[in-house]
# Entry
Amino acid sequence: MNQKVVHLLCIVVLCISLTGCWSSRELSELAIATALGIDKHEDGYKLTVQIMNPGEIAGRQLTTRAVVTTYSTTGKTIFEALRRLTTITPRKIYLAHLRIIIFGQELMEEEGLANSLDFISRDHELRTDFSLAIAKDMSAEDLIKVLTPIEKVPADKIFSSLKTSQDNWAPTKVVMLDELISSLTSPGKQAVLTGLYISGKPETGNHIENVQQVDSPAKVHLDHIGVFKGDKLVGWLNESESKGFNYITDNVLNTVGWVECDQTGTISVEVFKSNTKLTGLADNGTPKITIDVKSEASIGEVACQIDINDEKKLTEIEQKLEKKIEEIVNGSIAKAKEFNSDIFGFGDVLRRFEPKKWETWKENWSEEFQNIEITVNADMKIRRTGTTTESFIGKIEQKKEKDE
Amino acid sequence: MSRFKIFNTLKDNKETVDKISDDNNKSLHKDISKNISEVKQMLGNSFDIVTREIKIGETNSIEAVVIYTDGLVDKDLVHNYVLETLMIDVRKAESEKKINSDQELYNFIKNSTLTTVELKEIDIFPDLYHHLLSGDTIVLLNGFPKGFAVGSRGWEDRGVQEPSSQQVVRGPKDAFTETLRTNTALIRRRIKDPNLWIETQKIGKKTQTDVAIAYINGLVTEDIVLEVKQRLNKIDIDSILESGYIEELIQDEAYTPFPTMYNSERPDSISAGLLEGRVAILVDGTPFVLLVPALFIDFFQSSEDYYQRSDIGSLIRLLRFFAFFLALLTPSAYIALTTFHQEMIPTTLLTSIAAQREGVPFPAFIEALIMEITFEILREAGVRLPRAVGSAISIVGALVLGQAAVEAGIVSATMVIVVSLTAISSFVSPTYNMAISVRMLRFGFMILAATFGLYGIILGLILMVLHLTGLRSFGIPYLSPMAPLAVGEQKDALIRAPLWMQTRRPKLISQKDKIREKTEKPKPTRQ
# Structure
């Protein structure tokens, strides 16, 4: 019996010493951070944290107090700044529910990403399912302060519009921590981050009136993809180039494209399926990349006179679309060459197809990247034509003619 | 003065007790008046003991006495078949010169007069007292150091009614009663097999309670019957008032929160148990019959599972296991998630939980404890209060208290949901004693969750499973057929397979006569 008790005590003591998650924290002791902004500051870094006020989001009696609060502080390091925040926040900042981390453009251009990223990947409290972005032409602090309509928590708004636009329109990219670090460290690939900016009147953004009006004076926009070289931001891709980037990296889930008709007017198609295959080849010592984009689309809008029941016409449209995709893709590549940054990971592709040659190119990859020969083959198939066949626009035209 | 008197009485009592133990096998006297006075003295002249002195024979030559306990006997029977026959039939026979000696008279009374089925000759006082107090009628004749105990038991009882626990929608609605004989009859009515054997013995020095062991010979493993008998024989107690006494005195493991003996007031589930080769222990004075060996899964099975279609029965069984874990772990999981692992809650859910927790003055553990204890109090009050008030109190108490506490900001609304879910889940268990175990363990898990978080809960679950695997019920592993795994018996464990599939009896419980049935899968017969 005595031995039993001793054994039991041993088990209990071991259990206590083994436990990893030791200290408990009540929910009401936590300040749940939803967004983190990191800017350059003369002292080192300026850290802005957006904290949600749960009572205003889901409480039983909602008041007119803001749903989020931001606090800013500076510090030599990010970790220091974060802890210094406790001098102005009522509770300890809890980072596990972070939705987005925004870096100021200045910081990205001058100091780079690497130093600020270490804390984020090292701290145990952070999950890795938040997305990262850059505040374009402004400080992260200003961007975090904007109140958004519909989604009460601004960070949620940014996170969900990043995701929705990536899935339905394709000029943005949700970049998570793991992916960012792997492209920063890979020798054959450069990193990208989506850019965010405020349109309208940025100064009204942090007032409650920004969400009281039907048309918010300050809106958060996201397009443009920031191109990195090493860990420094070197430039931006515009909307069409961003789309081209997503075509090349096989990141298009669904998007819309248009082409001109034979006569005046346009035809829009919805690309609902797109696969891209990259193949690398060493041709007499020059790196060669073939990009095969295979897309399927359905006709979404016909704003001209065209008989879409005619198979030939459809083939014509397909060819035009293929050409357009090739243009977009080439434009994107040209821009990347301009920045001399291999954001598409062509280096990685070549490493896979030509491992031996890659070893010789690796040292001088930024020069080799300029010389790379690229062939783009787009293949577009129109699968559906929508719920109507011939557009009624033709009939209207005929009626006009009769009236005349 | 008065104190002195009390002291004296106590002393007298002590002497009486000593006397009883001395006279353990004291024989009856020849002299009837001596016998009467001894009985009267022994029973303290209790007013419910009726002694009727009569004289029988043509010449009223023989003194006799009829003794019975009022209230325990069927009075009609005593009048018609004891007094009438003694006083009239004996006289007739004597006038026809059939009886010549006293000995002949004694035999005549024994063989031809007392027209009842049960008749026993008694010659020692302890037997006399036992029969007298069990409701038999005692007949003593002057000049004989022996007498008769006439079976005349017939007292007021409740009659067979609907069970108050373990109710079913479909299935028999009769329940055991407080009378042992009725209960054995209820089982006999279901199993008309000569191999259904019922043995009785008396347990309890003062209560002399009849305890019956029922089993089907040929199905049951003899070792289990032997074990039951041995354990029952070891009981040395003055009183058995309910089968719970027996359960506590003969269970395998004294210190366990889990019941290792099944009890039911439903004759159909006890009969089903017997047909699987189990042993039933019936105790006089209670409608709750014990069934051994009992397995963990038995406590999640209702007899209705077998009366409804098998798919419904299976789903409901799975639901019960799910509810078991809900009842056990909901409050502790809530505590662990909200105080240790906030990162595991989806952000939107965390927001609404956090919004409700704003302004709640207590830590989540204290909050949970307050609500759980309040609910336990309400439930206990609901059970003990008079039926008319009970349900009203429990409903109103829970509603009003829950709502008011939330509105006053003392507890959060989520906590009320957690507690209600727990409470409802604990009522799903078809057996009350497993539900009580869960109620008890829940608090342990809450403490573990408050100190170690989910880690503590997992630790607690591991300990619980270790304990469960170590348990035995009359030698049968408690967790079988899961541990040890018996693949064939999964047909009637977590799920309930169609009856035509369950061809064999549970292997561990009965190793004899394994084939239960040979019915084929039902299909239309071609003409």
In short: The mean pLDDT of chain A is 87. Residues 162 and 338 of chain A are 26 Å apart (CA to CA).
